[in-house]
Design brief:
eight-stranded mixed sheet; Rossmann fold; 12 strands; alpha/beta; 3 domains; Arc Repressor Mutant, subunit A
Length: 415
């Protein structure tokens, strides 16, 4: 792919790709022009024009095939262009300027101006539901457990892929849909809609006291799947989104994307953003900081904090839930020099933990950025320079040591 090419090769490949792509389109337009011209020429000339058209079309076909092959070798063209530009920038930037950028990227004292430490207070102040966006291992279950304990009410979970040990903190009867039982989920969501209508009537007749004790916290895991499989999923989220909070029916819908379509709200983004607080965990929070907020410094800040840092709407949040609701995590022993110190895993973010674990399993071996990108999903899309910054940060704290420098910099575990 693009990152495996030498900068000189990359530049050449990009030029060849651009030439082949535009040449193929040019040949197509020229062929159409020749055929149009041939229609108005005498009969004896049409044969030559037709032959020229066929020849031009064949040249275009071959150039199109060449462009396709080059595109496959380059992978993501945008990624290739970015790598090419980075190579040019490194060759034309003074070392002092590069050093200034590196120091800024790992400034441990920087804090976002709009930092929040209590997402529940923020959610309750907004009087909204929660749309939780996160991937496997981002801490969705822990966050929803914490959130439900603070919001209150009977907790019900809709999860068609739940394993026996998932949602272990709940009564088994409150986890609906195990083993892909979408019919049970659809039926339960239909009853939720009936319950909501009953609460509307009760509150209209007796006020808030009439619905006291009927509070519920409803969690819908992998909502895009529920939208596809359950007829009641879309009306369920729409009606609860607009009326549920007033009747103490709080919903938390989980997905792996923050588009309105993933929440069954096609063409209705206003409902998503006006009725839900969007909590983005892990890579989704970092992507939001980079792509939507255009704030690379915030992206690095989120990354340095691991699971305890995430985004709540456009506000960064820092909250350590690693020990919440569970026993303390066993310490990791890290040795430096002749003295041993015990350091909790809380001192290492998820990126550092992967590196340290690899080092302990491969003592004496040198770990490089490219190796991490090939073998770890967590680092697959990361920039090699960011990985080398993590290596340097670990070494500065006495955790392992760096080997070599610049683009060749690596890290290894050492005692």
């Amino acid at each position: 792919m693009a990152e495996n090419l030498h900068p000189s090769q990359l530049h050449q490949h990009l030029q060849m790709y651009a030439y082949a792509k535009w040449s193929s389109w040019g040949s197509l337009f020229l062929t159409v022009g020749l055929l149009s011209l041939g229609a108005s020429l005498p009969r004896q000339s049409k044969t030559w024009v037709l032959a020229a058209s066929v020849g031009t079309l064949e040249v275009g076909r071959r150039h199109r095939q060449t462009a396709k092959l080059l595109q496959e070798s380059l992978g993501d063209i945008d990624r290739a262009s970015r790598v090419n530009f980075q190579a040019w920038a490194r060759a034309n930037t003074q070392p002092t300027a590069q050093l200034a950028l590196t120091v800024g990227a790992i400034d441990a004292n920087w804090q976002p101006e709009n930092l929040i430490t209590d997402p529940v207070e923020y959610i309750q102040k907004k009087q909204k539901h929660v749309a939780l966006v996160g991937g496997t291992g981002d801490g969705k279950s822990t966050f929803t457990q914490y959130l439900s304990s603070k919001i209150g009410g009977r907790v019900v979970v809709y999860d068609s892929d739940a394993k026996p040990d998932d949602w272990a903190w709940l009564d088994q009867a409150d986890v609906i849909g195990r083993k892909g039982n979408f019919k049970a989920i659809d039926t339960a969501m239909g009853k939720d809609l009936e319950t909501l209508e009953d609460l509307v009537q009760l509150r209209g007749e007796g006020g808030d006291n009439a619905i006291a004790g009927r509070e519920r916290f409803l969690i819908a895991e992998e909502f895009p799947i529920l939208v596809d499989e359950c007829d009641n999923a879309t009306p369920w989220i729409k009606r609860h989104a607009k009326r549920g909070r007033r009747y103490k029916q709080f919903i938390c819908a989980l997905a792996q994307n923050d588009t309105a379509e993933n929440y069954g709200l096609q063409g209705d983004k206003d409902t998503l953003y006006s009725c839900f607080v969007l909590v983005r965990l892990g890579q989704f929070g970092r992507d939001h900081a980079r792509s939507k907020l255009k704030d690379p410094q915030l992206e690095q800040w989120l990354k340095a904090g691991g699971k305890k840092r995430f985004m709540v709407d456009d506000c960064p949040c820092e909250m350590d839930l690693s020990n919440w609701g569970q026993s303390a995590i066993a310490p990791v022993e890290i040795s430096g020099g002749g003295n041993e110190e015990v350091q909790s895993t809380q001192d290492l973010n998820e990126y550092e933990q992967v590196i340290v674990t690899w080092g302990r399993e491969h003592p004496g071996e040198i770990l490089k950025a490219a190796m991490l990108q090939r073998n770890s999903q967590l680092f697959k899309k990361d920039d090699p320079e960011n990985i080398r910054i993590i290596f340097a940060s670990l070494a500065d704290r006495g955790i392992g040591e760096v080997v070599d420098s610049g683009d060749r910099l690596g890290w290894r575990w050492s005692k």
